[in-house]
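Listing S7. Sequence submitted for prediction.
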Amino acid sequence: MFKPNRKFRRDYHRIFQKDPIAANMLLLLAELADEKGQVATTDEELAVLMAARFNDPEEYAFGRATE
């Protein structure tokens, strides 16, 4: 199970300020990656997983305000 460390959260926050959807895609990919960091999926599957994982793809995933 993926547990984000402080560095990942900082990177996520920095990216989120510029592009919230990209930051949440990064989080989704990190959650899906295996021990080698590989993700075996298609673009269509990613779209379905993104919709299932996030109620709002532009919402901050760690539960605190960004501003």
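Caption to Listing S7: primary sequence and predicted structure tokens for the chain studied. The first helix runs from residue 6 to 18. The mean pLDDT is 90.
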